[in-house]
Design the sequence.
């Protein structure tokens, strides 16, 4: 069975949307294998976001991800990587489709980094790498 890493990012936790996001995940039928509240250090985030190093939003992204706790979830199910990305919606919350987490709950706050509520691994390779980083 496939697994993915889902994060409810600091904006989702701070806005009290963890339950609403989990409800959608559970209603879809995916299995919670492990879940915990995390306050990642910079080194953890540098590993997680290595592909974005050097991009203009990289530093603001790390700062944002250190601004408060996130909820890390090990999620399992058939085609869960693709399925959760579909639930999450596209990266830009302003134009993410209604019905998705980002489309329903997210918008542009005029900040340096897009605050789009959730993260989901984008491939089996990313999922394995990221699950190791967040759950060991
Ligand atoms: P994740 O599931 O969080 O990885 O989102 P994603 O796969 O849809 O986006 P990506 O991996 O490309 O970028 C990671 C995060 O960086 C995004 O979720 C945003 O928070 C932020 N980000 C990505 N692209 C931009 C951008 O063009 N501008 C800004 N300001 N932030 C961005
Ligand atoms: Mg990504």
Sequence:
């Amino acid at each position: 069975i496939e697994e993915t890493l889902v994060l409810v990012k600091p904006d989702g936790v701070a806005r009290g949307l963890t339950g609403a996001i989990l409800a959608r995940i559970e209603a879809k039928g995916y299995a919670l294998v492990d879940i915990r509240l995390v306050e990642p250090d910079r080194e953890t985030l540098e590993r997680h976001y290595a592909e974005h190093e050097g991009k203009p939003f990289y530093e603001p992204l790390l700062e944002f991800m250190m601004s408060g706790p996130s909820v890390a979830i090990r999620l399992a199910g058939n085609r869960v990587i693709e399925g959760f990305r579909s639930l999450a919606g596209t990266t830009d919350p302003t134009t993410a489709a209604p019905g998705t987490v980002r489309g329903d709950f997210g918008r542009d706050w005029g900040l340096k980094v897009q605050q789009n509520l959730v993260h989901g691994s984008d491939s089996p390779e990313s999922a394995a790498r990221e699950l190791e980083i967040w759950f060991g």
